[in-house]
Amino acid sequence: MIASAVLNQQLLEYLNTSILLLDTDLCVIYMNPAAEVLLQVSGRKGAGESFYDLAWESEADKKALHRALKTGFTFTKRETEIILHNARAITVDYSVSPIMHPESHSPCLLIEIQGRDRLLKISREEQIISKQETTRELVRGLAHEIKNPLGGIRGAAQLLSRTVPDNSLDEYTNIIIEEADRLRDLVDRLLGSNQLPKQEATNIHEVLERVCQLVAVEQVGSLHIVRDYDPSIPEFISDKSQLIQATLNICRNAVQAMVESETVKPTLKLKTRTKSQFTIGNQRHRLVAHITIEDNGPGIPAQLKDNLFYPMVSGRAAGTGLGLSIAQSLINQHNGIIEYDSEAGRTAFSIYLPLKLA
Asked: pTM score, two decimals?
């Protein structure tokens, strides 16, 4: 049975794959609704426009389309970045197939585009969560191996200080005890809190205002704080103290980076919004709070970007490298995640928290 033209049209309209038809000048003849959504332009406005006015990749790829028209060969590109007409960059897979127009019988190009940003984001989040869990298990095992001999060293130093008659040696036994305590505290900080999150009604803006008070006091007025809050975000169930700690760690890192780099007019911007039907890792949530913490500091060094949430990784000479690792762990305990985007002059950390409504 041969499908009718009406049925073919309806099938194209319902496809999730973006479909475009280009003429020999690479101008749009047709685009289905999925393409309108992906390219962020209506079919009526896009019709007749040059494809590369709507989505630019490179001059070489433009030549590749002309070459496909000339030779009749198909080709596919994977995970390539294109720039939309509104300057937004998206990652896509696309296939190009030269065909004959069914009505005019003139050569044209059929382009099938699949957006990859969502899948890449899910994959990246799963990797972050997996890395965090692996790191946590590694640190737990390491902490156990360190704390046991530390307890023995400390106890032996205490016994030694009591049995040695010469009080002048107390200085050395005290150093052993103090350094054993310091290492124990460091291991405890690496482990983070071993308590389950408290379940209490939380207003995210109360959390952020508490953090603002703390960082503002520490900088004695040299910091400009900008607030952009969505007052419609409802209260949700969480551990308020853990959220304060996680947010404070991010804000302190941002402020310290701005201070050390002597940033002109250091500014910290806190923004809240909600996202519906949002996926974190492989789990979809009906409603998620999105907290953005943005600074105008020097940005994150390129060599640290892939390992930023690992313990003991820091871009500051005086940093311990524990703040972001602990923050990610605390947010993970709330089934959320922390991501970031950084370039010179701008760094933005995004906290995504599923809203378990009170």
From this structure: 0.66
- Residue 61 three-state SS: helix
Cα separation of 43 and 24, whole Å?
19
* Same-fold call for 5-115 versus 200-354: no
The hierarchical CATH code for the domain 5-115 is 3.30.450.20
Q: Does the domain at residues 200-354 carry the CATH identifier 3.30.565.10? A: yes
Q: Kindly report, residue by residue over 254-285, the tens digit of the pLDDT.
A: 998 898 888 889 999 999 999 988 888 778 88
Question: For 138-174, what is each residue's pLDDT tens digit?
Answer: 767 777 777 778 788 888 888 888 887 777 777 778 8
Q: What is the domain partition of the chain in residue ranges?
A: 5-115, 123-191, 200-354
Which of 186, 300, 202 shows the shortest CA–CA distance to 246?
Answer: 202
Q: Percent of the chain, pLDDT > 90? A: 26
Nearest-10 crossing angle of helices 323-333, 117-163: 120
- The candidate with the shortest Cα–Cα distance to 351, out of 220, 244, 222, 226, is 244
**DSSP 3-state of 162:** helix
